[in-house]
Amino acid sequence: MAAVTTTPPTTLRPVRRRFPFGRAAAWTVMGLIVLITLLPFYWILRTALSTNAGLSADPTNPLPVDLTTSGFERALGLQSAEEAVAQGGAGGGLDFWRYLLNSVLVSTLITGCQIFFSAMAAYAFSRLRWRGRDKVFGLFLAGMMVPAIFTLLPNFVLIKQLHLIDTLLGIALPTMFMTPFAVFFLRQFFMNIPKEVEEAALLDGAGKIKIFFRVVLPMASTPIITLGVLTYITSWNDYFWPLMVSYSDSSRVLTVALAVFRAQTPQTGVDWSGLMAATLIAALPMLVLFACFARRIVSSIGFTGIK
Amino acid sequence: MTIASSSPPSRLPTGSAAEARTRTGTERGVSGEDRGDGRLAALFIAPALLGFLVFLLWPTLRGIYLSFTRFNLLTPAEWVGLDNYVRMVNDPIFWDSLWVTVEYVFINIGVQTVAALAIAVLLQRLTQSAMLRGIVLTPYLMSNVVAGLVWLWILDTQLGIGNEIISGLGVDRIPFLADETWAIPTIALVNVWRHVGYTALLLFAGLQAIPGDMYEAARVDGASEWRMFWRITMPLLRPVLAVVLIMTVIGSFQVFDTVAVTTAGGPANATNVLQYYIYGSAFGRFQFGYASAMSVALLVVLSAITVLQYRLTRAGRTDLG
User: Fold this and answer.
1) Contact criterion met (CB < 8 Å) for B130 and A173
2) What mean pLDDT is predicted for residues A267-287?
3) Per the count of CB atoms within 10 A, which of A104, A163, B160, B294 is most buried?
4) Longest CA–CA separation in chain A, Å
5) Contact B291 A153 (CB under 8 A)
6) Are B132 and A34 a contacting pair at CB < 8 A?
7) Residue range(s) in chain A whose domain bears CATH number 1.10.3720.10
């Protein structure tokens, strides 16, 4: 709300110009919220750029202690085991480049396929006419009621039977084809596309398939991008499911790797500097992705999807 | 969703209920031609339907079936009837972990809802800055694992900056994640940090549907912000708040990641939340049947909560939303 100060006409209630305590208090609260939100991010960076010895010696220093990139070197497996151990690392030989690649592959596969297939289904549910359409859609909606976590154990059994344990495909499969939410979300938008646009395309001789690609998808690009980014972030941050499915480096993603790194605590204490460097490597791609689309996402997180 | 519209033209306050901006309802219009698109629809729906049947419907049914069996992954599941459920009811650790989970949800949702509401109202009434909205959302971009690890470090008893500040104030250091009393509230608050921004933006979207001139009219009448919040914002936001509550409560009950990377269920089972116990039963002790039975119990609890909250919401429908 822009505080437009116009001199009010003399009313029964003269406006007294006082110091606006309420507004000042509100801004203070807002400032505090921003501080609590952002400080941990700075602390990750400050810790990652310190040495473990420095962290113990000077825990309250707001700046990096003994500025170094050795934490990142340990996280990225660029240090020899002896060197790592000497600097308070575990020397466990974790290869974060590989996990980064795995995370990118899994998230890209899930997001690309899930959005495309969900959009196809949403198109069938919103712009095509066929018998039993609403019944099938009702079934999908009922699927939204099942908490994701409930299907994890049986899905694990299924992936095991398919011999896809410890593969990236095994991690991606369950959410690769759809989520009820994605179908529901996109259907809401496809419904709002005016019929006239579709009819004009039909008169031009375009088929329904062409309309899907040339009319519907472009017109719903903003919600599709929003859903895409949110799906990417969700799959990138998923931990429970990949933890079940992957056993070795070949399919290990960043979230699981971080937990392993944390569990490999050396005798002397946690390698905080290396752990925070690894954390930053895991978190940074999402921050960058979000920064690219922030405006669209922030303004389209709303109730369209959950009405 | 339209991109945040610029300041709406201020209409005269009518005092009547504002029109809701809902756009739902299925299209029943026939687009000129009367033959259905059956074949094409089958093609379009095939991949999603396949995924739905294979990875959602089938596992759900199978999960329920497995809860009546003894199953260790290596040998075929053998039917044991209600054994798993009898065992569950008599398992003190199960009840303990359910209780721990309820405590977690209570703190997590209580704090998060109040904080998200405060943030949403500030974003609506104090400033319309899109940048602030973006900042508020940043923790949501982290995984629970990252959030857990960062706070584990900040709250570390020996070296964490949080405890350094506490001891600087002359108070004894608090072993936040290593103490039976502190661990669950700490994990609950860490997850508030991660999710509160997203929740606030959902509520903010609900607030955007409240016409600005209602506030203007109230201001002319000399109402304070505090009064407007209770008289305008809260009543009109209630349906949206109810939906957000259902979503967040269900999410909160499924807490796992943060516990797994910070306390691993300890100290002395103090943070052995239900999902963690289920995971341990399945992958630690290979009791897939028992783990499935506990999952079914959780499913029943969540369904009951959904139905209950939905009922309560319907009773309190307002003319907005």
Assistant:
1) no
2) 87
3) B294
4) 81
5) yes
6) yes
7) 106-255
Give the residue-averaged pLDDT of B277-289.
Answer: 94
Question: B209: which chain A residues are within 8 Å (Cβ-Cβ)?
Answer: 303
- Categorize the per-residue pLDDT at A263 as very low, low, confident or very high, splitting at 50, 70 and 90: confident
| CATH class belonging to B101-268 | mainly alpha
- Spell out the domain ranges in chain B: 60-90+273-314, 101-268
Q: How far apart are CA A296 and CA B130, in angstroms?
A: 10
| Among B33, B39, B45, the residue to mutate for chain A (most A Cβ within 10 A) | B45
Give the closest of B136, B243, B260 to A37, CB-based.
Answer: B136
Please list, in sequence order, all residues whose beta carbon lies within 8 angstroms of the beta carbon of residue A216, skipping any fewer than 6 positions away: A119, A123, A127, A190, A193
> A205 in the Ramachandran plot: left (φ > 0), alpha (ψ -120 to 50) or beta?
left
Nearest to B298 by CA among B248, B250, B257: B250
Is B111's pLDDT higher than 50?
Answer: yes
Among A118, A135, A139, A110, smallest CA distance to A182 is for A118
Q: What percent of chain B has pLDDT over 90?
A: 58
What pTM value is reported for the model? 0.85
The minimal CB distance from A178 to the residues B48, B125, B140 is found for B48
Q: Residue A265's pLDDT is what? A: 72
pLDDT given at position B225: 87
Cross-chain Cβ contact A134/B26 below 8 Å: yes
Residue corresponding to tokens 């989520």: A179
On chain A, the residues whose CB falls within 8 A of the CB of B265 are none
Class of domain A106-255: mainly alpha
Is the per-residue pLDDT at A18 higher than 80?
Answer: no
Residues B9-31: tens digit of each pLDDT: 333 333 333 333 333 333 444 44
**8 Å CB contact of B260 and A180:** no
Q: Which of B150, B229, B236 has the most A C-beta neighbours within 10 Å, making it the best mutation to test the interface with A?
A: B150
Q: Which residues of A touch B151 (CB under 8 A)?
A: 40
